[in-house]
Amino acid sequence: MAEVVNLRQARKEAARKAARALADANAAKFGRTAAARAVQDAQAEKAARDLDGHRRETE
Description:
This protein has one domain. Helix content is about 75%, strand content about 0%. The protein has 2 helices and no strands. The chain is rod-shaped, with a radius of gyration of 25 Å.
């Protein structure tokens, strides 16, 4: 005898799997970890400080 399946639940589960696959693909394509963002922000701040440190003061 076949197993009884609730079609509504099966449809929702399929939608969840598809959304998760899309989210994983987007994370791989666009995502960065919090640590990577922090490193990049720190590097940008240091570069700005270094550039400002080399400016001449003219009035």
